[in-house]
Amino acid sequence: MSAGALTVFKAANGVGTITLNRPERHNSLVPELLESLIRDVASAAGANLRALVLAANGRSFSTGGDVAAFFEVTPSERGGYAGRIVGALNRAILALFDLPFPVVGRVHGPVTGGSLGLVLACDLVVVAPAAFFQPYYVDVGFSPDGGWSALLPERIGPAKARMIQLLNRRISAAEAVEWGIATTLVEPADLDPAIGAWLEKLGSKVSSALTCTKVRLLPPDRRAAYAAELESERRSFVAQIASAAAHEGMARFLRRPA
Q1: Of 94, 173, 175, 255, which is most buried, counting CB atoms within 10 Å of its CB?
Q2: Interval 112-132: pLDDT, tens
Q3: How many domains does the chain contain in total?
């Protein structure tokens, strides 16, 4: 690990861990963090692992795209910057889906904006009571990305997905479990023991059968559909963020002069 690394990858005893490491900005997504995450997922793919844990440092799991960073880019460059971020996020999501072994999400705190996609790409997800999921797109002036329109409706149903996003309604940790975004809810002190119990169970399974199961649960045609929908999200996000309405929305959200 290098000083200031935005993600950290470690592996021991057949289990890898990738940790988002931008805690001073709530692990919000910038190109450098996403490119580091993509590299770490590639390292995990080549490390002969039986499972990967996706975790985060700091109070939040990740608060999605860094709105201040979007706002500070000049309006003429904002579309290109946004396309780079959402494109990298999509690559990270698909790379997690493509791993041939189970991915376990350790979600101890808030997940907002496009970071939802990183959680949806996990096979098992443990959440603590402080965790919640919230879109914020209609408040900031963005178009949904990170799977909010491409992946979430299939998971929880179109009506719930529509209500949550149009009203910017928060999904609590308990609701996330009830609706299938997360697997189980535990107290903060029990996050790692819960993951340890899953890893022990996974370690007793036939690894090739786990891979076959993952492939069957996301066959090539569905994976291709996910990729197309995520790309559609990217194009819509880029078009919307270039608008005057998005500029005004970001200024209002950040409490800055427009």
Answers
A1: 173
A2: 999 999 999 999 999 999 999
A3: 1
pLDDT tens-digit series, residues 184-240: 999 999 999 999 999 999 999 999 999 999 999 999 999 999 999 999 999 999 999
Q: Residue 1 falls within a domain, yes or no? A: no
Q: 140 with 234: CB under 8 angstroms?
A: no
pLDDT at position 2 over 70: no
Q: What's the whole-model pTM score?
A: 0.97
Determine the structural domain holding residue 223 and report its residue range.
Answer: 7-254
Q: Which of 152-161's residues contact partners 24+ apart within 8 Å by CB, and which partners?
A: 152/116, 152/120, 152/181, 155/120, 155/179, 155/180, 155/181, 156/180, 156/181
Tell me the CATH number at 165: 3.90.226.10
Domain assignment present for residue 2? The answer is: no
